[in-house]
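Record type: monomer structure entry
Structure origin: computed from sequence
Chain ID: A
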Amino acid sequence: QVQLVESGGGLVQPGGSLRLSCVASGSISSINHMGWYRQGPGKERELVARITIDGTINYADSVKGRFTISRDNAKTTIDLQMNSLKPEDTGVYYCNANLVPTGGIYSRYYWGQGTQVTVSS
């Protein structure tokens, strides 16, 4: 069993900051990449930020310079520091991981349950 558990969402005023965390746990052999997606009201789910096994980081253009993704040394926890938040950042943020479960051969995608981020005055 593999689980991704997110925490850290909430309500914040425009210009404020939030920090999201995601912990991957369970029977994991290796993790290829982990990242954050979000889905705003009436919008499709989109990639926000991702970090690969070798440390390569990608950001959506809309969050560059404002959001920072990081991970711990064990590479099973990622954080998303979100600064200068805007109303258009509102949405459900999902943790995503591409990993090989213990005893498996092929990698699979896993998703967290999502955490709500609301940016409003």
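Annotation 1: The two ends are 40 Å apart (CA to CA).
Annotation 2: The mean pLDDT is 96.
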